[in-house]
Amino acid sequence: DSAYALRPWILTPYLTPGNQNEWRYNIGHRRTRAVIERTFSLLKSCFRCLHNSGGALQYAPKTACKIVATCAILHNVATRRGLYLTLNDTDSEDEEQELPHRQPGDGSIAMEGRQRWDHIFTFYFG
């Protein structure tokens, strides 16, 4: 997502792709992000504890991860058993918004993010 700075755990698209491989990377990034956004939207519509939380669950990161994982597991169990969860309407806040790109900041985390980005790009798209 171009709204975030490049980090080892967050890969961002190229701002101005300069060749076909960079375009392919951006297309793959966009498609992957779309799947993730649809998944989050589905989970938020089924589990109100994930919705309207101001953009982030108001818990420690480990607890928030457990909550999201539990909701995903419950969704999968219900789907496998043919129990379809009621989908609630989601607000327009769930729609994808284009945010300005934040350039990677200085420091070792940004450098590690750039190294990971370069490695993944070279391995899969280079």
Automatic annotation (TrEMBL):
- The DDE Tnp4 domain, residue ranges: 1-76
For activity, the cofactor(s) needed are:
a divalent metal cation
Q: Which UniProt keywords apply?
A: Hydrolase, Metal-binding, Nuclease, Nucleus
Checking Pfam families in the record gives: DDE_Tnp_4 (PF13359)
Coiled-coil positions? none
Give one GO term, molecular function aspect: hydrolase activity
Q: Which family does it belong to?
A: Belongs to the HARBI1 family.
Protein's recorded name: DDE Tnp4 domain-containing protein
